């Protein structure tokens, strides 16, 4: 177990270097001069461009730019934006917001998705099963921004139950609706995967044995059936945290949340490689660590899985 | 000119003409309750300023609006778009439009309690003009004598290996402090419009605190001399402003606190406005314009205004195929501007019929004969011109909402003249501008112009004079240059306007570009606000707000 963990952690290093370089290179290759559009139709004065080019090493090759960026990054210096803001400050203020939103979304999709999956998996082809099938199909078919705008307009403007945008304090009660919107599609998938998994294991030998032994139904479902059926669901949920954080840009925009999405979009448009890489680096770490946690959870769920 | 940086919306990323409006007040002009106003607070929408707030280094609307509120300049532009009036200036005297004696009002204060003196202007202007400081608005000071000594050009352009040489002087020789309340400005050449320019935010005074700090640090906690001062600025969240109680000029605040809430998405802001969480939105989202939805939603709280900005399609005259003025005029005459503003813009913009925006002092409505819709004349001119070979591309930046109207224009040219015209989207404004700046355009392209200061001069010199700062198509007519030069140097504004009118007649024959529509703005406010006006640049006049 310890060696496995160490090996996995060591694997993070090349992945980390590879992803940062790829992202840096991609943003660098976005066509256009970062200052061509900055000052409108009049264009920036040459002295302004010269000053900025020198300040940000923009006249150097990508290798030099990337090397000097990585050197600073390893010393904990994320650099500054073209507007002069510390990128570490941007990360420190925007990440917690996106993380809060993603965690709320994950909790909602886990509770509702799993609940619906278990109920329908146990009682297939009933009214409830059909209702869940239809409603999850509906959620999968609708783009997130449609769900977001409709809920914001209905609940926020028409009925006045919620405020249309989230305040700076990011209170939990304000995040329920955005969290639901963000998690809605994954919720539908969780429900469907859980349903199939439960329904399949329902006919497994060990379940029949447990029932034949005369165990109470609660124990059969709660311990034997559920634990084994959770593996695909945990895979889905675990990798979803990273996807939710990276994909929150639309939800953040609709509900006015100051998260990483707007920062990434802004810095891609202005060709600020340093900001994009800084934010995505942290996101990559979230992905890698969540993957590791999921792998470790398998062992906890299924005793047959062992790591050496 | 300032650029709007919001990611979506009618005037989105890189839309060159940003938000401008003539004075216009809400339907309800009864005024508010003085008690409710005096300690009242409002929340308005805004965008994150791109750079630290230094007036001479701000060229976008997000930071520009805050700067306009936090600073008061020598002159102000009335909300009704008329001629400028003295604000901080007691008098601006000149006999020859070359030497200006400026006297400022005594004992007005900066937000940190220090006094605004003549020196506060001179030092601020010298800082902005000094080349190595790299201020984005440096070119505004180019009229002043000695500018070329403090601002040097890079001899081989920004791409070349050489750097701009160190300027010979640190201060412009044309600026002289007489005493605490008087200073003298000598221009390199007579410029009648100079006093008008003084209302632009690049010309505001700066306190001593600016010079003892760095621009970046000062810009995070800016100290102005205007009706409101900064309380706090939380990046990407909000900027809090409050009334400056020691303010002694005309435009005092009637309310106390203003919170500028920073939105990423204008639809989110609009929904907050409808739900009563936001008190003012300068431009409602495009989605609310369709079918006049915003008027139904807001009723009397919907403010529609026309703005002194023009949407233009320009020709690359450096391309041989566009050399013939008859061809250019034929294309311009084949465009039905009325149907474009009606069908594409739902009537929120007006068809262009003059070269300078008619809200501008010195402009003449209807002086663009090439802006008419006349298919017969267009066809005749097209035949005389010898026709156009190949494909006529009309480029636009696809990161803002320009696709629909550019396509409509292309379709009309195709139908009416039989030219194979297509609208081509360039992914981002940055790439689009880079091509224009490098003179690499192979077809007509979208341009736009928003005036920096209200005078017809601002619509001619930068756009249609040889070497003008935004004459991207390299249009050049020696007669226009001569007339514009005479006009600029005229001893009075009236004479200047007459000369510019003559220059415009020649421009109208040459058709270097095609004005298509005049800008419009659709704003909304909450029920809480009882009275509100917009400034000449379409920003909220926060000093007019009554609750």
From TrEMBL, chain A:
Q: Which GO terms describe its biological process?
A: transmembrane transport
Membrane topology, as annotated, equals: Multi-pass membrane protein
Gene3D superfamilies assigned: MetI-like
Q: Does the keyword Transmembrane apply?
A: yes
Q: Which domain of life is it from?
A: Bacteria
User: What InterPro entries has UniProt attached to this entry?
Assistant: BPD_transp_1_N, MetI-like, MetI-like_sf
Q: What is its main location?
A: membrane
**Tagged with keyword Transmembrane:** yes
Location within or outside the cell? Cell membrane
Residue ranges of the TM segments: 9-28, 101-119, 131-155, 175-194, 276-301
An annotated GO cellular component of this protein is:
plasma membrane
**CDD domains of this UniProt entry?**
TM_PBP2
Sorted alphabetically, the keyword list is: Cell membrane, Membrane, Transmembrane, Transmembrane helix, Transport
Q: Which residues form the ABC transmembrane type-1 domain?
A: 95-298
Q: What family classification does the UniProt entry report for this protein?
A: Belongs to the binding-protein-dependent transport system permease family.
Stored PANTHER family: DIPEPTIDE TRANSPORT SYSTEM PERMEASE PROTEIN DPPB-RELATED, DIPEPTIDE-TRANSPORT INTEGRAL MEMBRANE PROTEIN ABC TRANSPORTER DPPB-RELATED
What is the recorded name of this protein? Oligopeptide transport system permease protein
UniProt organism field: Micromonospora marina
Q: What is the lineage of its organism?
A: Bacteria, Bacillati, Actinomycetota, Actinomycetes, Micromonosporales
TrEMBL record, chain B:
Keywords recorded for this protein, A-Z: Signal
**Gene Ontology cellular component terms for the protein in this record:** ATP-binding cassette (ABC) transporter complex; periplasmic space
Which Gene Ontology molecular-function terms are recorded? peptide transmembrane transporter activity
What is the protein named? Answer: Oligopeptide transport system substrate-binding protein
Whether Glycosyltransferase counts among this entry's keywords is no
List the signal peptide residues: 1-18
Where does the sequence pass through the membrane?
Answer: none
Q: Name one GO biological process term.
A: peptide transport
The residues covered by the Solute-binding protein family domain are 84-470
The protein's organism comes out as Micromonospora marina
Q: Which Pfam families match?
A: SBP_bac_5 (PF00496)
